[in-house]
């Protein structure tokens, strides 16, 4: 009887809730340094609320200031919206919200017009938004793809626009490509889709960038668990018929305790933004403990 009572107390008082918490960080450096150097220091954002986290950051430089567009996941609503951080000492500002979850706010500029294409697969389509007043006012302007896709990533190369993305049913293991003559489509399926099937380095992890006219594509390494490391791949061949890339660098959270995972990176002129994952433990509240005690010992 005494043993049974002790076991019940252990179960009540020592039960914890484990959950992932993501944050964003800044690195002083450029694309060349990222490729060649493993010695980088991250200045982590001091998130001023416990009700949400920030992930999937995209960086844009304007007038000597860095603007970080990111998913802000709200623990209360259990969905993400898009926010912008423009002052490292102030809270993030919500700029785009929908009834469904939003993340991965891919941002691109063409002819002076800024576009954001957030991942909103729960809305069944890939919508794009145009900037009406930087950086806070955005308007939903149209549909990029009339289907569920993840992490849409666009870049221009060899007189075409290329769209890399994943699909919900193979989110961690397969990569797809479409191409177009304009940034808003008509997007044509690549002849070899899915062009990659590899859990280690398929899903996009941020914008494609170039160093000395060589293309590099960040991808997620989810071989062990979601968002372990970032893989930097060199694209060695890209046509409407073929695609080849080779792994060049692994960016891991080593030496950045308590962060134990990373899954996104974005670059501006002399700044790099990255995200990091850590696992938090939340003890039961006193009210929950009392409620559980009453229910356990009044049966």
Helix proportion range: 10-25%
Structural class: mainly beta
Q: How far is the N terminus from the C terminus?
A: 15 Å
Main sheet characteristics: 5 strands, antiparallel
Instruction: Count all strands and give the number.
Output: 21
- Under the CATH scheme, which class? Mainly Beta
Mean pLDDT across every amino acid position: 89
CATH superfamily: Glycosyl hydrolase domain, family 43
Tally of structural domains: 1
Beta content comes to over 45%
Q: Stretches where pLDDT falls below 50 for ≥5 residues?
A: none
Task: State the CATH topology.
Answer: Tachylectin-2, Chain A
Description:
There is one protein chain. By secondary structure, the chain is mostly beta strands. It has one domain: Tachylectin-2, Chain A (5 Propeller), CATH 2.115.10.20. It is built from 3 helices and 21 strands. The strands form 5 sheets. Strands 11, 12, 13, 14 and 15 form a 5-stranded antiparallel beta sheet that branches. The chain is globular, with a radius of gyration of 21 Å.
Give the topology.
Blueprint: H1 2-13, E1 16-28, H2 31-36, E2 43-44, E3 52-62, E4 65-74, E5 79-85, E6 93-96, E7 103-110, E8 113-119, E9 126-133, E10 137-145, E11 150-157, E12 160-166, E13 174-180, E14 188-189, E15 196-197, E16 209-211, E17 214-221, E18 229-238, E19 243-251, E20 265-267, E21 271-283, H3 286-297
Antiparallel strand pairs: 1-2, 1-21, 3-4, 4-5, 5-6, 7-8, 8-9, 9-10, 11-12, 12-13, 13-14, 13-15, 16-17, 17-18, 18-19, 20-21
């Amino acid at each position: 009887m005494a043993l049974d009572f002790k076991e019940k107390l252990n179960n009540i008082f020592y039960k914890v809730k484990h959950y992932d918490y993501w944050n964003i960080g800044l690195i002083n450096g450029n694309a060349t340094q990222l490729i060649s150097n493993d010695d980088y220091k991250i200045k982590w954002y001091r998130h001023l609320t416990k009700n949400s986290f920030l992930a999937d950051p995209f960086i844009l430089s304007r007038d000597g200031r860095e603007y970080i567009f990111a998913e802000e996941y709200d623990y209360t609503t259990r969905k993400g919206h898009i926010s912008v951080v423009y002052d490292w000492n102030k809270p993030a500002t919500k700029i785009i919200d929908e009834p469904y979850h939003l993340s991965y706010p891919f941002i691109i500029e063409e002819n002076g017009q800024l576009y954001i294409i957030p991942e909103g697969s729960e809305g069944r389509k890939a919508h794009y938004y145009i900037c009406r007043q930087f950086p806070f006012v955005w308007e939903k302007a149209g549909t990029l793809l009339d289907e569920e896709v993840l992490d849409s990533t666009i870049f221009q190369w060899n007189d075409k626009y290329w769209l890399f993305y994943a699909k919900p049913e193979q989110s961690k293991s397969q990569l797809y490509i479409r191409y177009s003559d304009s940034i808003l489509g008509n997007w044509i399926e690549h002849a070899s889709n899915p062009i990659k099937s590899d859990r280690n380095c398929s899903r996009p992890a941020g914008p494609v960038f170039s160093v000395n006219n060589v293309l590099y594509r960040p991808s997620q390494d989810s071989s062990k668990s979601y968002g372990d490391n970032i893989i930097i791949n060199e694209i060695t061949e890209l046509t409407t018929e073929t695609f080849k890339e080779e792994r060049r660098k692994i960016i891991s959270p080593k030496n950045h305790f308590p962060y134990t995972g990373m899954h996104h990176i974005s670059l501006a002129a002399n700044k790099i933004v990255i995200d990091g994952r850590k696992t938090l433990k939340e003890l039961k509240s006193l009210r929950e403990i009392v409620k559980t005690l009453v229910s356990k010992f009044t049966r």
